[in-house]
Amino acid sequence: MRIVSADEAAAEILAVASLQPALRFPLAAALGHVLAEDIVADIALPPWTNASMDGYAVRAADILGATPDRPARLRVTSAIAAGHADGASIGPGEAARIFTGAPIPAGADSVVRQEDTQRDDDVVVVQRDRDASANVRAAGGDVARGACALPARTVIGPHQLALLAALGISQPMVHRGPRVAIISTGDELCTLDHPDEISSGRRLADVNSPALAALVAEAGGVATALGIAPDDADALQTMIESAGDADVIITAGGVSVGDHDHVREVMRARGATMRFDRVRMRPGGPTALAMLPDGRPWLALPGNPVSAMVTFELFARPAIRAMAGRRDPLRERFGATLISDAPRDATLEQYLRCVFASPTDDGRVNATLTGPQGSGMLTSMARADGLIVIPAGSGVVSAGNIVTALRFA
Ligand code: AMP
Ligand code: MG
Question: Most buried residue, 30, 326, 355, 364, by most Cβ within 10 Å?
Answer without folding.
Answer: 30
